[in-house]
Amino acid sequence: MKPSSSLASYCFVSCLGLFCFAATQCLYADAPLVGTKPAQWRVTWRSDPATSATVSWSTAEQGTQHRVRYRIKGSDRDEGVVAAKSGRFTGGHAELYYHHAELTGLKPATRYEVQMMSDDESSPVFYFLTAPDTDRPFSLLNGGDSRSDQQERRKVNQMIAKMVGQSFANDDPADDILALVHGGDYIVSGPNVAQWSEWLSDHELTVTDDNRLLPVIPARGNHDSGKPFNEVFGFPEDDRNYYAINLTPAVRLITLNTETSTAGSQAKWLRRELASSRPAHRWVVAQYHRPAFPAVKTPSSALQSWVPLFEAYDVDLVCEADGHNIKRTVPIRNGKHDDTGIVYIGEGGLGVGQRTPKTERWFLQSPGMADQGSHVFVLTFSEDAIFGKCVLLGGDIRDTFERPVRGR
């Protein structure tokens, strides 16, 4: 699962208490999995990100005691120590253990320092930012498909770390990047723990130079079958992986699961969710994996199950993945271009070989677009509009768009 530390490619340099690669051609993990030394650190948002977060890490050995110490950044007093729920990852021959500490009762819009502790070993001190409980502008990152090109994945992760670090250097709160909305297909084979371990180690590269952890809001992709997905992100064992959270009082994010029935109970849940969230929020955004309006493949069952609900309740933006390309559709309603309709963006470039989009499809015609290239979307939510931009690996802006608030 890991190369020996004696290999030339295993090249570490010290970086603010973290381990980081000195060169982009080094392809393996940044923090070695040794004994009960915490590694593969991550934060997940699944419920109320203003007051809670799941802090997770991995160890090579089972250990006996796993905890997180946390406090407000800059404070000289710990808020507490939380015991983690632990277990061995399921699948394959790789031995790897997960640990999830649920932090609750946090203060909104607050930087919390965290340190993972397993037996007598400790991680570096990191921090993350809780979501605000006030109606203010902010930004998200969105993308999917990081499964098959590790070198590209690592480069995109390094770009994400740089973007997040720069976002807090600006005075404008709209530049604050709060989380990564990941549309699924993290690895090639969902039951393969060794592949998950590699992905988790590469995810460490999203940590900023000042040790900030960027929370992930995960969706399940078609390559993410099996138990490890829930074990990686701290979901309950039999969780169905569709849920909704407030990012501020004005912004509701709905995560759906295309890897189970899109009709039945999930569609009924979505109808109830939209009926309650649409009147209460300025912005309602959905994310899931397999696209309803694909740039390469055939439409998923989301076209029949969810699109009529999106249109009935005027969802503002939908984020899709799976196609391995870049796309932004025209506004769509009733199967045609309609300026009152819904824009669908995607389709995945966080570390995967890119496919050629079928640009002749009507919903990709101007003012829509389609292209290919490793990328991440930046979505900025203001009082009047959602501003989007597609950032290519290297920093070039491939596309920009604006979705004005409805009814104005």
From TrEMBL:
Identification of the protein by name: Fibronectin type-III domain-containing protein
Organism: Novipirellula caenicola
InterPro entries the record matches: Calcineurin-like_PHP, FN3_dom, Metallo-depent_PP-like, PAPs-like, PAPs_N, Purple_acid_Pase-like_N
Keywords, in A-Z order: Signal
Keyword Signal tagged: yes
Keyword Signal: yes
Signal peptide: 1-22
Lineage of the organism: Bacteria, Pseudomonadati, Planctomycetota, Planctomycetia, Pirellulales
The Fibronectin type-III domain, residue ranges: 37-133
Domain of life: Bacteria
